[in-house]
Specification:
165 residues; mainly alpha; two-stranded antiparallel ribbon; 9 helices; 77% helix
Length: 165
Amino acid sequence: MAVSISYAELLALGPCEDRLNNAIEKFGGAEKWGDARVTAKQACAAGVTFSDLVWVSSALARKDKDVERRLRLWIADCAARVLNIYEKTESSTAPRNAIVAARQFARGKIRAAAWAAVAPPARDAARDAAWDAAWDAAWAAAWVATWDAASAAASAAARDAAWAA
């Protein structure tokens, strides 16, 4: 069954005024939206942004255990889709184990204590992978800029960005 939300329920979640007004506009005004329920699929079709959908899902998850379970499973699926990028350069099994644990936790197969034990190493591994990727990208940009004699200033800026990353 698709999760849906009414205008009143969205309002009760307390979105910022700009995002609320954007959603109201997408659905033809508060009066037109009324008591109708909107699914994520309908919101996407209306042009609601992905980040707004994630915010609403996260806010709903704090109040609805089924939405929380679904969101945890979706996040685990997202992480699993990019796991191969991490595993190309790292040998740690922490991210893979965290994905498995997140799915088990969402399905009620492990307790919060077990989940808490797995989450920090996975978070650390993900942070390290993001740091390595940012460093590699910044260094590559600095290297390319260095080869262009006309962009000596850009090279210095890119090199500084690499160190800042």
